[in-house]
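hey so i finally got around to running the thing on that chain from the lab meeting. sorry it took forever, my laptop kept dying and i had to restart like 3 times. anyway pasting the input first so we r on the same page abt which one it is
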Amino acid sequence: MEGAKRKVTAMGLCMMIFLCLLAGCGDRENTRDHVPGFGTAESRTAQEDSSDDVSFPARYENTIENVSFDMDIVIDADLSEETPVIAKARMKKADAGQAFDLLFSDNDTYDTYEYEEKDEYGKKVKTGTYVSPEETTLSYGPVSSQMTYMRRTSMRYIRSAFVLDEEDERYNADLFSKEGQLSFMDRKDALQIVSDALTKINMQFEYDSAGYALDYANMQSQEYHEDMDGKIDRAQYKESWSVEDEGYYFCIHERYRGLPLYHVYAEIFSDVSDANAPVQAFVSKNGIEYLEIEKVFDVSEEKTGIRLLPIGDIAKTAADKYAQILGNATYEMTNAELYYYVDLSSGMGIYDVKPVWIIKGIERSGETQQAVQVIIDAQTAKEIVP
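ok and heres what got predicted. didnt touch it at all, straight out
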């Protein structure tokens, strides 16, 4: 994507081919959705099947060789109520017709591009991309839950001014407020617009969201365009910015049984971050101007009352991993959070889901440092490499 150098999904690649367009928790919506016949009864008996009391400290401190642990232990759910489970997941199916009616039907003229590609089950399905003369686009497929809608007229400037990816040298999302309100609408009302849209296109699910208030003064100061040679391209800059350009950018993360539901974004990007949120949206006074749905899931319990290992066992696995790395680097682990992990490598269309710890920290080597992340199976203490 322009400016932000956004990570590209398969659907984003489709948009690039035709248009060359693209160069923390907030509010929680407690909405649960299950597909009939995909196993919904087990959740009612999960607590009854559990025989183990699960408890973890609020903090863990230890040093093992070159790895120090001074980390918060984050568990959002009450594990005595939301007993850990093993589960299966499959992608929710976006309703392309409803998406068209809701987001694109006000375009009187448009071009249609249709292709046949393989979905997550390996079956050939039709994908579609609609493009208006103003370069507003709507794309869906090939996997069931993928969909992207974008009004390029505004989003090309938003993308040049708001950089969400922390690995991008121009990252600046921390300059925009996650609590502030914009004059055109309360942030909760803006999030409700997105929630209602997701419901209408069969994408309702339990989630957490982070919402960035994109004020025009910050965007004006942060706007950046460059040409093919990497030099500043003044011709691309927005002629003027005003309050009319403001909006909320939402990063929406799925949850399951009270915990974050994690999967590898686009099957490539494994970092837990807002930049890799499976649903992202921009809402202005004109409504939804951008909506990307990457992968969201329906989940069904398979085995309840599983036993999680002590946090010390998990820390030892992390220490063993980094102790084997050659060099004089040291590691400081600062956060361990319990997630449910959707293993996209475990099948085609139906995926294994299990509890994992995602540990984050800092690698220090000389005067340089970088963020690190390791995923560890909460039952076996084995590292998971996505």
